[in-house]
Amino acid sequence: MKNKNLKSVATEEKKQADLIFNKENYVLIAISMVVVILGFVLMSGKSGDIYDFRRTTLAPITVILGFGIGIAAIFYRKK
Q1: In the chain, pLDDT over 90 holds for what percent of residues?
Q2: CA–CA distance, 13 with 5 (Å, rounded to integer)
Q3: Are 70 and 32 contacting, i.e. CB atoms less than 8 angstroms apart?
């Protein structure tokens, strides 16, 4: 009985070792995609001044922040 338990634990560890990213990485990547999409939504629009604060400053900062979160998500490792 104990031997079967050890095999299942070893199999679980091997499955986790085969994956490139953990759950935390995928969550961070999803958050970064939402932030980038939010930045592009802030940048879009038909009415209003094209040179307002939202389109020229806030939206590009939001997009760059989203890309930064995505890069951090790729390099993030659980200790």
Answers
A1: 61
A2: 13
A3: yes
Q: What is the mean pLDDT of the chain?
A: 86
What dihedral angle (degrees, nearest 10) is formed by the CA atoms of 47, 50, 52, 54?
Answer: 70
Tokens standing for residue 32? 């970064």
The residues, any chain, with a CB within 8 Å of residue 43's CB and separated by 6 or more, are 55, 59, 60, 63
Tokens linked to 72: 């951090």
pLDDT digits 0-9 by tens, 34-51: 999 999 999 998 888 889
Rounded to an integer, what distance in angstroms lies between the CA atom of residue 73 and that of residue 36?
Answer: 14
